[in-house]
Amino acid sequence: MVEKGITLLGLGPGDPKLLTREAWQVLSDSSEVWLRTRHHPVVKSFPPNLKVYSFDNLYDACEAFEEVYQKIVERVMELGRRSGGVVYCVPGHPLVAEATGPEIIRIAQQQKINVNVIEGISFLEPTLTALNIDFLPHTAIVDALEIASAHVPPFPPNVPAIIAQIYSRQVASNVKLTLMELYPDDHRVQLVHAAGTSRVQIETLALFEIDRSTQIGLLTSLYVPPLGIEKAFEAFQEVIAHLRSPEGCPWDREQTHQTLRSDLLEEAYELVSAIDEDAPDSICEELGDLLLLIVMHAQIASEYGEFTMSDVLSGIHRKIVHRHPHVFGGQDVSDPQDVLLNWERMKANERAANDKAESSMLDGVSRALPALIQANQYQQRVARVGFDWHQIEGVWEKLLEELEEVQDAESEAARYDEVGDLLFAVVNLARWHEIDPESALRQANVRFRNRFLEIEKAARAQGRDINDLTLDEMETIWQAAKVPDQD
What we know:
A 5-stranded parallel sheet has the order 3-2-4-1-5, with helices on both faces. A 5-stranded mixed sheet has the order 6-7-10-8-9. By secondary structure, it is α/β, with parallel strands linked by helices. It has 4 domains: 6-121, Tetrapyrrole methylase, N-terminal domain (Cobalt-precorrin-4 Transmethylase, domain 1, 3-Layer(aba) Sandwich), CATH 3.40.1010; 125-230, Methyltransferase, Cobalt-precorrin-4 Transmethylase, Domain 2 (2-Layer Sandwich); 232-305, MazG-like (Helix Hairpins, Orthogonal Bundle); 438-486. The protein has 19 helices and 10 strands. Helix 16 runs antiparallel to helix 17 (412-432).
């Protein structure tokens, strides 16, 4: 005997044979039931005298699913307060891939309304049967609409995934676009149609083809087999933790934040070099080397009880979301300059909240940066609050002024200072022209190196030592080497 109040009843995946005995007994003893949707195969097998009402009209009347579910919950709560209560039926299990069930339970608990859950077989069990797979050791279960609205998949690619409720080709199209940010376009996947019914069907096809299926309907799910274990960030963390474990590598176990400092700088510069060379394969490799050190530092910190990788991720996640209210909040900005000004205001507020109100906006620029980068960042920051030339003519005048002061310096100490001021002015000119001075100088270094290599090459070709070449001979070779750079 079901107690009055709200009865949440799971209708199973579709085949009447999979309806539980308890569910059938409740249906047989009830005079009426309310359905989230009539579009479920088991409805045709209901007891003949059962009055059936549904909320299908809301799907046409409301603009979004969230509104549909909200209205359903509100109405079920009203019906549940009647003296006879209500039996509310949903496909599958009331708490699996069902937005209304958990919300009804939450509100009913607040309002002291009795809720009785009549379990049903969810879509998962027959889907596993159709695919001949086991849930364990791990399988991601994700809603299609969550995937469709995301930019990258919210689960690691080294685990299999079942994506539920691929109910239309449009949803399938949005899902595939998100998945293809991580998975190869031709990754073999399986669409499972009508699992738990006599019409069950499996389509095996390439990921990019899933929205071309004509079989997609209300009972369609997508199975995404895993990529290799080496594709997942979590798996890489395990590798690093293993290296640091007692049974790991003796060298890795000895490393500390301090011993890895120079490696971190070296890998960062190697990445910059790969970027300067515009070499995607090298950039990919160097990003991996840099990531290795980031994960290693996080693992060391975890062992020391300082922080964990989760702390690193949550910290930067909160910071980026907080500092982009124009993306993740309701704030409007008109252009990139507005973004920068707002960024500085938020950072000032953060300093105030952390009792650092008197600190400078320049404090965030690392003093360990190379001088050109540091100068450029100083200038960029002060420019955001208006401390800048109004026109580039002022920048040129300052540059020429600093050049004259170098020439007029009366001592080595004065000349030292004036050269520094001249370089700072050159950085300012580069900034006005939206040129990264560090990258520009690195490219100049590359050009110088390549041209000088040509001088050495020419000397060897003549059977001469480079010291035997005259300055005029070297200048001729140098000018010839400049020609390809100008093409």
